[in-house]
Please model this.
Amino acid sequence: MSGAAIGVGTARTSVKRARRTQVFLIHTLLIAGGIIVMIPLAWMLSTSLKPPHQITKFPPIWIPDPFVWSNYVRAVTIFPVSFLVFVRNSMYMSLMITLGTVLSNAIVAFAFARLSFRGSRVLFFIVLSTMMLPQQVTMIPLFILFSRIGWINSYNPLIVPHFFANAYFVFLLRQFYTTIPRELDDAARIDGCGVIGLFLRILLPLSKPALGITAIFAFTWSWNEFLGPLIYLSRMETYPLAIALSFLRAAHGVLWSELMVVSFIAMLPPVLLFFVAQKHYIQGIVITGVKG
Amino acid sequence: MWSRRTLRQREELIAYLLVSPWVIGFLAFILGPMLTSLGLSFTETDLFTLEFIGFENYTKLLSFDATRTLFWTTLYNTAYYVFLSIPLTISVGFFIAILLNQNISAQPTYRVVYYLPAVIPGIAASLLWLWLFQPEFGLINWALSLFGIEGPRWLFDRKTAKMALVIMSVWGAGSNMLIFLAGLQGIPTELYEAATIDGAGIWRRFRNITIPMISPTLFFVVVTQIIWSSQVFTNVYVMTEGKGGPANATMMMVLYLYRVAFREYRMGYASAYAWIFFLILLVFTLILFRSSKAWVYYETEIGGQRS
Model:
């Protein structure tokens, strides 16, 4: 319903003067706010390219003179381990989590959306209530469990739980599946499709947008994840980018150019993904009413 | 051929099979650990030894002796952060959503700009804001100096450190904006048209249509925000080097929990703490759900009395 309204900006043919002033005022406010939002990011870029003596100038210099591109090289070579290792670790973790999230939730949500079984309502209620659960209450026993089975300093504790579905995505995908007309199910049944065939041949192909949303959210969240890797990974070769950045902060807290360089690099994948897929983001938020 | 009954049974079996990943995950990664952590909360344990000590963790935690527990400090700090940042992020997000909903051009561009901070990794945002709040060369104190104000020492002053975190949270108000915008766009325009014909001015339309129609969205945002922002961790960890300083002024609940559990390995004490944290959130959520009957308007209500 509200999904259809997104992005539909109907232009009015007769624009009154009052309306024009109003629109002008709104744009002024929105642009001013937008500048406030973007200034920190501009400052990040500016700092990342400054020569050392310009960083601590007060009042600040906005345009670095000259542009010190070598900051980027120095920042990524400051670590005892190759920077590419962190990128690879982050990629591996995020892609595996994305894979597990899409696979498991697509299946579980299908059962909740389309199949009738005893206890489905109770189960779905439990699914929804776990959304409210802070992860801290399960964090300690899970750490003990994973350390007992030797998973410390591996990505298993961070990846494996995502292969067992998650309340938020079950909800998102179930909401989407229910928008697919049931008549399709009946038609497929008459043609001799079983439950699995119905899922694989009808619902799955029709839910590509929702699966895409799931993948985008899962990737972004796991890329940005901090507490989990902080607990489970202590050897530098295993660090994802987020923890490598935190290490840099602890080791070289005042190297602002370098800190801004790596922050900028770390935010590129989720930000680019957001630019490319922003329509999906918004659709995902409309489906669930939950933020990203 | 399957008879009707066995076909049903077969399908039910398949259904159970399909939901089993979630059920297994729930038992192994949620319910099991929750009960274990409840059990651990009555013990003193690191990773290797375990001793049953009854309610001692709880009595120690909740005692008012500040040399023994930081519980009350962390509760105060977290509450301070949550109850300042939520009204701010919600009202800013709502205000922007209202502006964006006025049929203006370039709406998608604005949406992208305002939502951008929400997709930036917490660690990158934290480093950036640490730099912005830098007392001597930071951009924020420079901006204040333009108005002749001498900026405070922000994260280095116990009086302003929490406020710095709140200010940073407002930067991310765009995520609320997007939810509110979706909610606003779901309000049928006929309602406004009818009200305009009846002579309702802009304020009355806002009060009597927008507010009730957006209240379910608002309710949802408040609940998720309380749960979400009370778990504030990444930015305090990064900005205070995991110390929650100065003088514990930014020692938040989850940061303290992290320190007790994973720096000091006092797993029993930390479990008790985690459970108290969970119960506090649960109580807040339940109070909100209870109160929602009084202020959240659902369209299915017949003859909604709020007007």
